[in-house]
Design a protein that fits this description.
Blueprint (H helix, E strand, L loop, with lengths): L2 E3 L2 H11 L3 H7 L6 E5 L6 E8 L2 E10 L3 E9 L2 H8 L1
Parallel strand pairs: 1-5
Antiparallel strand pairs: 2-3, 3-4, 4-5
Protein name: BrnT family toxin
Pfam family, one: BrnT_toxin
InterPro entries: BrnT_sf, BrnT_toxin
Length: 88
């Protein structure tokens, strides 16, 4: 079973900054049509996911530890360009 974790203070600041809660972002992780790519800009294995959450397309940045733990780092609304990528 996959465990999804996050820092509560980071979740609060993300909601204020981007208007997306981490609880909402978690929904996008289970979008069967989500687009996922590796984020090579960091020293740890991070991924960027573009997926639907409550009829809102969001981008979720996360760290994956093994195959059973995902730590949410950030979430925001998708840009128009990202919406086009998702639609194709």
């Amino acid at each position: 079973m996959i465990q999804i974790t996050f820092d509560p203070s980071k979740a609060d600041s993300n909601l204020i900054k981007h208007g997306i809660s981490f609880d909402e972002a978690k929904i996008a992780l289970f979008d069967p049509n989500a687009l996922v790519r590796e984020d090579y800009d960091h020293n740890e294995p991070r991924f960027v996911l573009l997926g639907m959450a409550n009829r809102l397309l969001v981008v979720v940045y996360c760290y994956v530890d093994n195959d059973d733990m995902i730590r949410l780092i950030s979430a925001r609304k998708a840009t128009k360009n990202e919406e086009k990528q998702y639609a194709n």
